[in-house]
Structures are given as structure tokens and as C-alpha cells.
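[job 4417] fold queue: 2 targets
>>> target A
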Amino acid sequence: MVGFHPINRVMTVGTFLFIASLIVMVSGWLIRNYYGSSNLATVIWANFFLYGLLAFVISVILVFVGTILGARSGKLQERAGNIWNNRPGKR
């Protein structure tokens, strides 16, 4: 079985957390629109929005850290070379 590189793990977790944060924020928005401007809906909406925003910030940090780690290890250059066939010496 192929090992999963730590940089790939960080980027994968960051991506899934980003998607989850968007889902949480949208569900808070839907709850607010469904219940109107009642006190309960405002509290629920605020909690969903703040937790979604927190998850969004954490996901951005994780993706940034993964990008920095990938750039320092040379893995990003290797991947870019594989994608765009920019291998030096092989033409």
C-alpha cells in the first residue's frame, strides 16, 4: 500500500474542513431563514456562523501550512513538473 505523505494529509484535512465549514455556515443561514428573526433562530444562527467561521479559519491555516511544507520539501515543484511536464532535461 502506498504511504500517504504528511503534506498530503495536511492539505486533505484542510480541504475537507473548508468544505465542512461552508456547510455549517449555510445550514446556519437556512435555520435563520426558516425560523425568521426569533430569538432562538438568532442564537442558533450566530453559533453556526461562528463555528463555521472558526472552522474556515483553521482550514485556511492548515492549507497554508501544507503549502509551506510542500514548498520547502520540493514536493510542490515535483507535482507541478508532473502536471505540466516541466522536467528539466527531458524534452
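>>> target B
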Amino acid sequence: MAVLTTGLIENNPVSGIRPSSTLTVRLRNKDLMNAVVQIRGFYLKGTAKIEYVLDSITLAPGRVVDTHHYAQFDALEFRFITSSDEVEVLAWGKNDVGNMTVSYHVVPVEIIPPGMEANEQMDTVSADRIYVANSSSNNVSVIERKTNALITSVTVGTRPKAVGVNPVTNRIYVTNQGSNNVSVIDGLTHVVLATILVGVSPEELNIDSKTNRIYVTNHGSNNVSVISGRTHTVIATL
């Protein structure tokens, strides 16, 4: 598995023309097995990064896929989570007539200097599973870590955002930004056990496995919901 980023791309207009109006991403699977790649795109608004692209693509061995994304922002960043280290990711900008204007370096997240970007929550990797939230299809992909094979897709709420795992209880928690709730998935059966109503537009979550409590940040209502992992209920709002 690899987590890659373009870093912060400055795309301010020069004489009224931006260097890039479209960002093209090329994915190439060099592995002998299927690979899954999640693409996340953000633009900068003040000091906040706003997600506007969230997609997941499955690549057969040897397959090459190009995706094209709107890029007319002053600053933007793209991140990629690959189930295999053998996936090559390239990115470049194009102008209004479709000509390449600039090639962007795609590097592992860990080598980006601290302070250059906000700490975005990644999708979750357990001991033998990778869980990928798919916002456009309202489900979570469960991937076998050793083989990169897709085990199943679990339907959750609207616009799933973040995924977290409690390794003690083997429960997976998914924030659903569009339906204002959290889905609880059984890690053994891949069945949704509960759907918990929280605040408005839940995004990040943190799990305290010692207390079996889940803390959900609600971006739209500016508060935090505290969930009991035992009863699957909200026990406090902070």
C-alpha cells in the first residue's frame, strides 16, 4: 500500500490565464494482481482544504487509466491511496486547449515537509484488510491486503467520508457526510450493524479502543459526537 500526494499545487493566474485548467492523472498497474486506487482532490479556500474529488478505480494487471479533473483554483492538491506499491501514478496540468503545461511530482506523503499541508484522515488499514470509502457510490470497499483482491463492497450512508477500525471489537466505523450519520460494520461478516445519527456533515473520526468510544467531528454543526461502541448510541455532544 502507498499513500501519495502532489503536494500543494500553486495555480494562480498569470496575465489572467492559469497554468492549468485541467489536471490529468495517469494510473498504471505494474502488479500481477488487481489493484485499487483512491483519488482525492482538494482545493484551498483560505486556510481550509475543501474536498471536491473522491473516486475509486480498480486496475487489472497492466491496465493504464487516465482521469481528468477540473483544476481552476488558486491552489489544489491531489492524494492517492493505492492497494499495491506497484501502481505508478503520474499527474500533469493542461491548458484550455488541452496542451500539457506542467508536470507535477507525485511523492509519498511522509516526505512532504511538516506544515505544508493539513493532516487529512486516510482510509483505514487493519492487519489484513484495507477499507476504502467511496463517496460517489455510497459504499465501502473491503480489500484483502495480501492479494489486493476486492472481498466485498458494503453499502453505507450518503457520501461516506472517513473510515476507522477498532481492532479490539473488530468494528468498522464510517462517517456519512451526506446523511449525517455513522455506519457500524462488523469486520467479520461485513454487515452493517447500526446506523447512528450524529451532527451535521460528519467528517473525521477517532477511536479510543481502551474505552470503546468513537469521537466524530461534525463540520456542519461545529461539534463533536461521542459514541459508545457498546450501545451504538451518542452519549455526549461536545
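[job 4417] complete. Note on B: Residues 145 and 202 are 27 Å apart (CA to CA).
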